[in-house]
Amino acid sequence: MSPALLLLPALLLAALASPVEPGCPTKCSSVDIPYPFGIGAGCSRGKGFEIPYVDNGSTAVLPSVKQRIPIMRLSVAPPEVKVMLPVAYRCYNLTSGEATGLSFHGQVDVNTHGVCRISDARNMFVVLGCNTLAYTKNSDSKGKGRYDYVYYTGCVAYCNDSHSAQNGQCVGVGCCHVDIAPGLTDNSVTFAEWEHEDMAYSPCDYAFLVDKQFYNFQVYHLHMDVNRTSMPVWLDWAIRDDGGALSCAAAKNRTRYACVSPNSECVDSVNGLGYYCRCKTGYEGNPYQAGKGCTNITECTRPEEFSCFGVCKDIDGSYDCKCHQGYQPNGDPKKPCSPKFPLNAQLALGISLGMLVLVVTLLVTLMVLHKKGMKESFKRNGGSVLQKVENIKIFTKEELNQITKNYSHILGKGGFGKVYKGTLEDNTMIAVKASIKVNEARKEDFTNEVIIQSQMIHKNIIKLLGCCLEVDVPMLVYEFAANGNLHDVLHGEANHQLPLSLDLRLGIAIESSEGLKYMHLSTNRTIRHGDVKPANILLDDNFMPNISDFGTSKLLTVDKDFTMFVVGSMGYIDHVFHKTGHLTQKSDVYSFGVVLLELICRKPTIYHRNCSLIIEFQRVYEQENSGRAMFDKDIAVTEEDVLVLEEIGRLAIECLKEKVEDRPDMKEVAERLVMLRRARKNRSWNLRSPHHFEEISIDGALKSFATDISGRSSATPSAPSTPMSK
Q1: Of 186, 205, 236, 531, which is the active-site residue?
Q2: For the Protein kinase domain, which residue ranges apply (predicted)?
Q3: Which CATH class is domain 504-725?
């Protein structure tokens, strides 16, 4: 037989194992799409693996013909998919307790083409409510057996009164949870018909599948906004050709056997019938691709994973570690080799050399290692790039020790570690804080972030003065803010709270908005902060605000309008970003709306144990068309004060709107706050209506601005009674 004929089966197998079409996309937004999955015809294994993407290519969804299920992460090893699934609910009349008809039973089918199963190992079923029994039913039995469905499970949640439920406690009071079984492909929730009369603290029953590591019950979840809430759920996937009946033993003899890499192996699925592939020990990559599948791991370049205290030599699929000359293995490869010399010989040799030689050698070694470690840290942290940047100073480790007096004065604790106070030679006060730990994968992101921060020159953005790169975790040096952060000033201990006038708070709001506007519009690369909150607004000795903490920011090029997986602070995160993973300028606007509410109400986002500032403020406006009941009494003194607070409150409501396109941009927010301060300064108010004020501009032109609770404008608003007359 000719060599060409011998090679033909291997070529056919490679063709079946890899995408047919060249140039197949491997990413949808920031979600990797590895083979056997793919985007477009000819790029995937077939049905169940061809990933659609929607929203002009910005969102990958599960291949389901019934529902749009967004994909957040897709992985070959391990074989899993992270998706966002809706919450089931049924709501009740707050007085009579009767069902209002507002309900959804959470129906979802992740198994349209037989590929995916709901992971029993990583998910749980959660029920929320105060007189609630709910259970999920899965997998239509198709008339086989006693019941309509193959599987049922659920639990009961109750509350004795409105104070029974506790944050973080999902043990039956307000919240309960149960594990689920393997093999599940769908979900449908049933709620029991239980009494809900006079239970305003629990207006709805909720039930949902959710990642066990993600969910932490909070009391305010009993007032969940079902229209804006979905939960992360993990799916297991496997190769289930021919109806999913194939095990590894049966699949190896089939033409479309998926484990085509020579260094791959087959594993039977533990979540339903079928199998998946993985690289053998000592190899990594994609076992479903023949040509560029599982490749050898170079263990000797990864000492943190593969320990070797001697001479390391890489071999195909493994590595060899031999002790240095004069040493021998001690039976444990994770421990250093032992000297071959007998103990008596070691003692005699040590004494003969003398203590002096030992001390000198030790000191020299420590100095060499220390200098070598600093050079390696400097290089790893991007020093070769950052030392060329003109407007930042590269501090040495010794200089930083002197400036901070060996890190003796702690100002507070930031997102990545402690923040220290320091003093430069010219007596300028500074703040020194740790950045992220940098590796080869993060080096470019870190250096770009430092360069961009150094180029942001604005009076309302904290100035980056320099950095120290000779340490394991790079340290960033910022200008000092004498009055700390806005959160501590607003919500610190009552007996230490500073009096803040309305004018001062309005000034803080204006200057903060100007800093965010600059970040959005005035730099050569668009920046989304991603974590706008009072704790990240620092105040100098004149209470001038400075936007800080760019550790969660993302730099976007002009041809993109979102980024993915930015972690912000709960209570300030835009619900649209939380659902979709897309961070836009309007996400920062949403967070700034929460900051405005805290400024005018002087209440944190969660107060009185379980009260949500956003929910309570919106409820008051819906009922009274005024936020008077929520305003800080220290600044709501005169009729003019109340009018200013009303306008700030309405602006905050617009920033918090659910539809992103209905929110103002940060430029408009800043302009409206400036207009409000100018009108207050000129005392040019129309007291006929709390919804209307007039301002005489510098050139004498008359400008008017009117808004209602939904954000609509009117040139001739109605004139109800003023808030002071209510």
Answers
A1: 531
A2: 405-676
A3: mainly alpha
